[in-house]
Amino acid sequence: MLIADLQAMTDNASDPAKVARNVLEMALDYLAVGIDPALTTICVQSALPALAEMTLLSLNYVSVARLERNPTVKEEIRARGFERDVPAGFLCYPVAQAADIIGFAATLVPVGADQLPMIEQTNELVRRINRQAGDSVLAEAEAMLSVAPRLPGIDGQGKMSKSAGNAIALAATPDEIRAAVRAMFTDPGHLRATDPGRVDGNVVFAYLDALDPDQAEVEELKGAYRCGGVGDAVIKRRLEDLLQALLEPIRARRTQLVRDRGYVVEMLRAGSGVAHAVTQQTLRRVRDGLGLTSFA
Amino acid sequence: MLIADLQAMTDNASDPAKVARNVLEMALDYLAVGIDPALTTICVQSALPALAEMTLLSLNYVSVARLERNPTVKEEIRARGFERDVPAGFLCYPVAQAADIIGFAATLVPVGADQLPMIEQTNELVRRINRQAGDSVLAEAEAMLSVAPRLPGIDGQGKMSKSAGNAIALAATPDEIRAAVRAMFTDPGHLRATDPGRVDGNVVFAYLDALDPDQAEVEELKGAYRCGGVGDAVIKRRLEDLLQALLEPIRARRTQLVRDRGYVVEMLRAGSGVAHAVTQQTLRRVRDGLGLTSFA
Fold first, then answer.
1. Which candidate from B14, B23, B92 shows the least CB-CB separation from A88?
2. Residue extent(s) of CATH 1.10.240.10 domains in chain B
3. Do B56 and A272 lie within an 8 Å CB cutoff?
4. Which whole number is the average pLDDT over B114-143?
5. Chain A contacts of B52, Cβ < 8 Å?
6. If we measure between CA atoms, which residue out of A192, A250, A60, A291 comes closest to residue B55?
7. Does residue B84 surpass a pLDDT of 70?
8. Exposed, middle or buried, B171 (CB in 10 Å: 0-12/13-18/19+)?
9. Does the distance separating the beta carbons of A59 and B89 come in below 8 Å?
10. Which segments of chain A belong to CATH 3.40.50.620?
């Protein structure tokens, strides 16, 4: 797993301290949910210079016009209100992302559906570089879409986002979890338990769909909720119990890890060391394929 | 001295073999004209990952609109006929150039007048990064303009350029030198020695101005040429003798060096090793100044 701190700089250049903080927070989250660094290499983008070099190399194989057409970039430029003041790094980030994939010679990439244009951009670069090299130095990547849909924000406004304040953190305290579930968007027309309620767009049901181990009971509840017979309190109580049980051990592990930051930093260094070797090897293969001599 | 092979890729992405070849050619030229690697570090850009990282970091501190306004880039995009198909790497190359200067913490940069916008771009980045760091982690750079004007191409059409075929190579044979001087643009209206001739725009005089150790005699010749009394054969003969004497020892050293490519490659590796340490140190200072943690 790659913690993309350099990419985070493309829209946080005026707050690098936040980027630095989030590297550790993300590593803590990964470890807290049970990712085992003995099985999964966790590494940091800025510790892998081969990715920066691969990005610069790849930028020569894509036009400015092509980057400006990238639907994800277009949407995010709009959402951030960058317009003509879009930082060059932001326009180039699909190439940096492609280099992250290419650098590891990844062929299967777990992404959300909104990231499919990034895989497309990656494969365009792979084909362009292979054509230039006259050889298959790189393999195309395939997207691995999750079967679980993305969880909505608790306000029902788009996806969860810390900065939008509509997320539940993995480190949330029991009180924060309770407050978040209470504030969750359900059906504004469902004022009394006996009123018929809407299930679609109801954030509580979206979470129950994704997390409840007893999906048969969830279906029953949905039926009753639709007809009018189940209050918000009932479904919110069910979800809160579920979230409290789910997050309690994660929070406990996280609390313990926070006390041992030295271990987390060391884990990131070790993982980055492993990733460094892999990415250097890919860079060398690409450079050799293109006929570029290495003087490093 | 930095051999900017990655930058050469920004407009030679479809001919990387040429870029690889030119790295060695340039190193041969440097050594042949007498640059002593014991006194001057000669290094290769692609062997210095800190420059790639500094480029990516810096791209976040400049807008796409600012890059598009760069007069040198605008002019070169026009000259190359890139238009909307300009490679992203080409648009970004002023930032890569700035990173080359920043990476060495250079304060004095020898450039041609056409490169002044690059120094301006560099200093904009230096100020932006210092402001972000809240500290002077980088110093501004100053241009060092040569007192000798740029030599024109032998056809009088702009600057010398190998690809335009109007250059005299340092490795040119005596015959090639003779042919180049004979073909030099003088004054198309100066048909007979007795006709008055133009000195301005006359390539032979431009070279004599730049290279002849006896400038008093050159001034005398100019006077006579203007009045009509000196034929092109005379000034061309003088220049040819000068160039033959100037280039003979350079060509001899070059011929010897070509036989020992292993030495040249080793020299570039050693120089790049020295430069690697310097550029890593600057990168570290910038990252520390911005508050970014290093996991490498």
1. B92
2. 174-256
3. no
4. 95
5. 49, 52-53, 55-56
6. A60
7. no
8. middle
9. yes
10. 2-150+260-290
Whole-number Å distance between alpha carbons of B26 and B30:
6
* ipTM > 0.85 for the complex: yes
CA angle B281, B285, B289 (to 5 degrees): 170
Half-sphere exposure of B6 (CA within 13 A, CB side): 32
The predicted model scores a pTM of 0.89
How close, in Å, is residue B178 to chain A by CA atoms?
Answer: 35
What is the architecture of the domain spanning B174-256? Orthogonal Bundle (1.10)
Distance CA A100, CA A214 (A): 38
Which one of B6, B10, B15, B64 makes the best mutation probe of the A interface by having the most chain A beta carbons within 10 Å?
B64
Residue B78 has pLDDT above 90, yes or no: no
CATH of segment(s) A2-150+260-290: 3.40.50.620
Residue type, B15: D
